[in-house]
Write a structure and sequence with these properties.
Distance between the termini: 42 Å
CATH class of the largest domain: Alpha Beta
Largest sheet: 6 strands, antiparallel
Structural class: alpha/beta
Shape: elongated
Number of domains: 2
Strand order of the largest sheet: 6-7-8-9-11-10
Number of helices: 10
Order of helices and strands: EHEHEHEHEHHEEHHEEHHEEEE
């Protein structure tokens, strides 16, 4: 971080080994870091000096992460908050995202995952200061709808939170396929559907069934005819040259990739709504009244 102001990060975790590890990791990477052991201590520290990012443990004695997040968003709206937890649930993910957290990390996470989350949160401080720009709805169990402007920082938030929502419930191979497909289609919706117009929104809905997961991705653009999109894998060189002749960026693989990794990809007649579905390869268990999946390694 030479040549630019050091980013200030506040680590909040009641476990001393975790605090020490994250503090050392961040300091080594050039961040100005402080670590405290409770939500109340975090609020006190935030009152003393400004911070760019707060890495906040969700489950702590006394003031828990959700309560601390609410106070931080009210009193320090310009701070980007990362939630860390070893006990993810749909309720906690939806609640924290609705309150304006910009990243959600599930323990145990790697050093690389944590540093990428901090870097992304630092970049997304603009989103952190505009909580109302992103809305979260959950009408019934296993159904969640997220709506946000066509801004790049929200694509990363979509990816992170949707991934966290079903992190403990899908086989790794399913998760990777879904993450790729959703990222590609949401990116297309922002760039091509809404044409980068930040006043237009993208809505991502998903519903998890015992044997299938279904996504609906909708933009506010004029739509297009999916049948007119050529398969870029047939002649990738000619596909690249054709896009360059049209003045388009290198790409055009998003829809093709989604069709490869998902079982169904269906557009509405207008072309601004995409339904993605994938049958799950893991076996479904009923645990504590909730549907969960069990991978082969369990």
């Amino acid at each position: 971080m030479s040549g630019e102001a050091r980013q200030a990060v506040l680590v909040v975790d009641d476990e001393a080994p975790m605090r020490a590890f994250l503090e050392k990791l961040l300091a080594k990477k050039g961040y100005a870091v402080t670590a405290v052991d409770s939500g109340q201590a975090a609020l006190t520290e935030l009152g003393r000096r400004p911070y760019d990012v707060v890495a906040l443990d969700f489950r702590m004695p006394g003031m828990n992460g959700a309560e601390a997040l609410s106070r931080i968003r009210t009193d320090h709206p310009g701070v980007a908050v990362i939630i860390m937890t070893a006990y993810p649930s749909e309720e906690s993910v939806v609640r924290c995202m609705g309150q304006g957290a910009v990243r959600f990390l599930i323990k145990p996470f790697t050093s690389g995952e944590f540093l990428r989350a901090v870097a992304g949160a630092t970049h997304d401080r603009r989103a952190a200061a505009t909580e109302s720009s992103l809305t979260v709805r959950s009408g019934f169990r296993d159904w969640v709808e997220l709506t946000a402007p066509s801004r790049q920082e929200y694509l990363a938030r979509f990816e992170n939170f949707v991934d966290a929502l079903y992190d403990t419930r899908l086989a790794p191979s399913d998760k990777e396929d879904i993450k790729i497909a959703v990222s590609e289609i949401v990116g297309n919706a922002m760039e091509w559907g809404n044409k980068g117009d930040q006043s237009r929104k993208v809505t991502v809905s998903y519903c998890l069934f015992p044997e299938e997961i279904v996504f609906k991705i909708e933009d506010e653009g004029e739509g297009f005819a999916p049948s007119n999109i050529p398969d870029p894998s047939g002649n990738p060189v000619e596909h690249l040259l054709d896009r360059l002749r049209q003045g388009k960026r290198v790409g055009g693989y998003g829809l093709h990739i989604a069709r490869k990794v998902m079982d169904k990809v269906v557009h509405n007649e207008k072309g601004n709504v995409v339904i993605l579905s994938k049958r799950l390869s893991a076996q479904a268990d009923r645990i504590g009244g909730k549907t969960r999946t069990r991978s082969a390694s369990t």
